């Protein structure tokens, strides 16, 4: 259930690039491959944004998979 005080935030592509470290072309290639959250059409032609929570979740998943693959430990302790 969503908390009434919780707001949804959209972030634009440049912010997605900054947060993920991925280039524009890599982001769209991963969207096409189904391995990155798709953008939301903001109307007015080419304007799109991503749910901040989707991008945060994708980053958390990458961290979890990286730590599991590299150390066998999901919680990040070494």
Structure characterization notes:
This protein is mostly helical and 78 residues long. The chain has helices at 13-20, 24-33, 52-71, and strands at 10-11, 40-41, 48-51. A three-stranded antiparallel beta sheet has the order 1-3-2.
Stretches where pLDDT is under 50 for at least 5 consecutive residues are: none
Distance between the termini: 35 Å
- Per DSSP E runs of 2 or more residues, the count of β-strands stands at 3
Overall geometry comes to: globular
* Biggest pleated-sheet summary: 3 strands, antiparallel
Mean pLDDT: 88
Q: How many helical elements?
A: 3
Q: Report Rg.
A: 15 Å
Q: What structural class do helix, strand and pairing data support?
A: mainly alpha
- As laid out across the biggest beta sheet, the strand order is 1-3-2
Helix content: 40-55%
Order of helices and strands: EHHEEH
Q: What fraction of the residues are assigned to beta strands by DSSP?
A: 5-15%
In short:
The chain has three helices and three strands, in the order βααββα. The model has no long low-confidence stretch (mean pLDDT 88). By secondary structure, the protein is mainly α.
């Amino acid at each position: 259930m969503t908390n009434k005080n919780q707001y949804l935030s959209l972030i634009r592509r440049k912010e997605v690039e900054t947060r993920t470290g991925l280039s524009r072309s890599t982001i769209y290639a991963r969207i096409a491959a189904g391995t990155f959250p798709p953008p939301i059409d903001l109307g007015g032609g080419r304007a799109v944004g991503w749910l901040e929570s989707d991008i945060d979740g994708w980053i958390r998943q990458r961290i979890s998979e990286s730590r599991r693959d590299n150390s066998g430990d999901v919680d990040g302790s070494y």
